[in-house]
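In the current project phase, the collection of sequences with tokenised folds has grown. A representative record is quoted in full directly below:
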Amino acid sequence: MSTLIDSLNGNGFVVLPGIYSPQEVQSINQLVASVHGTALMFGERQFLTRTPGLQELLLNDSVRNLLREIAPKYFIIKSIYFNKPPAANWPVAWHQDLTIYVKEKIETIGFKNWTKKGNEFGVQPPTEYLGSIIALRIHLDDTNEANGALKVIPHSHSMGVLRNNTVSFTDRDSVLCPVPAGGIMLMKPLLFHSSSRSATDAQRRVIHVELCDMELPDGLEWSQKTMV
């Protein structure tokens, strides 16, 4: 397991196939359809909160054992559903994930770029918070080059927060991260990543869950904090 932690901390990402059985993937898809309907969804924020019963399905024995080893004190801070069907098919440029969500806006040293979406506030925290976050990306479909799998720049998370206009990454610098249905990708959100437009009609459904082990200062509270 130390090799897994070393890879995640060193490269900034790890792909692990076979975390969910085909039956478990089917159960997840059936629950999502029963709650949200069968119409195509392109993206949905606060996905665990808006999908009762989903967390229990996602945190199967394999995931719980994994988190006990690599992130025993971590809790959930964000959950998003992504899809890339033909009706919502666009490329995503190179970027880092720099926003966390809190319940209330409280001006705090080191927290900047405030936004508001729905019932929560987005803010960019100091780098030590971003560096402590682990993203768990659960793949419900085979994800490959044809349907817009993530591309990443290995080790780039170790550079800290960079302005996009100061970097010039290209596909030649990148590694493609195909993940089979039922597999997961662990990623550090400061890792530069992008995805191409899908060239197929296949869906690319991913449930993106972020975890952290740091409490916020000065009365700030994680808006989606959920214990694992």
Notes: The mean pLDDT is 94. The domain at 2-227 is CATH 2.60.120.620 (Jelly Rolls).
